[in-house]
Amino acid sequence: MEGAQPRWPPKLRGLIIGFLLVVFPLCVAAVYAFVHELIGDRRSAFYGALAYGALPMFNQQPYSGYVDFAVFGLLAFFLYALMRLRTDRGLWPVARLAIATALFTMSRTQGFFIVILLTPILAYALFCARIGWRVPV
After folding, report:
1. Euclidean distance between the first and final Cα of the chain, in Å?
2. Of 62, 65, 63, nearest in space to 12 by CA
3. Are 111 and 68 in contact (CB under 8 A)?
4. Mean predicted lDDT score pLDDT of the chain
5. Three-class SS of residue 72?
6. 29-38, 40-49, 88-97, 123-132: range with lowest mean pLDDT
7. pTM to 2 decimals?
8. Cis peptide before 9 (omega within 30 of 0)
9. What is the DSSP code (8-state) at residue 32?
10. What span, in angstroms and rounded, lies between the C-alpha atoms of 49 and 42?
11. What is the model's pLDDT at position 137?
12. How far is CA 74 from the centre of its chain?
């Protein structure tokens, strides 16, 4: 029993299946939610999610174990959470944005810097329009 390998945690067993069954569908759903929030049309959101899922860069990377396909899905989820902060009230939108920020910044190293650059720009557009600092067109 000295040379036996421990059964848990497995050495990347199930990683590829986990990407295909969990991460990839969640990324497609995040793209759908973002496009639906941005445009407001279900058909356009379905087409956007279908286009994201059909790109070979995204739908074949889960088989190889890369996580690059998830970065765009996490960016879509982050932008969706940021956009919903404008319309939703309560603690859930803030919690959603915190979860999206944590997921996005853990996905890649440059994600943190993208968040630093995007947050002030989008926050200005969202909060200034809501508070009334900007004149609506």
Report:
1. 73
2. 65
3. no
4. 75
5. helix
6. 123-132
7. 0.67
8. yes
9. H
10. 10
11. 47
12. 2
pLDDT attached to residue 118: 73
Q: Are 129 and 83 in contact (CB under 8 A)?
A: no
pLDDT by residue (tens digit) across 45-63? Answer: 999 999 988 887 766 665 6
SS (H, E, C) the chain: CCCCCCCCCCCCCCHHHHHHHHHHHHHHHHHHHHHHHHHCCHHHHHHHHHHHHHCHHHHCHHHHCCCHHHHHHHHHHHHHHHHHHHHCCCCHHHHHHHHHHHHHHHHCHHHHHHHHHHHHHHHHHHHHHHHCCCCCC
Reply yes or no on whether the pLDDT at 44 is more than 70. yes
Q: Which of 10, 28, 32 is nearest to 19 (CA)?
A: 28
Which residue from 62, 93, 65, 72 is spatially nearest to 28, judged by alpha carbons?
Answer: 72
Locate tokens 């059909």: which residue?
A: 54
> How is residue 122 written in tokens?
């989008």
Q: What's the pLDDT at 4? A: 58
- Give 84's DSSP letter: H
Q: How far apart are CA 33 and CA 30, in angstroms?
A: 5
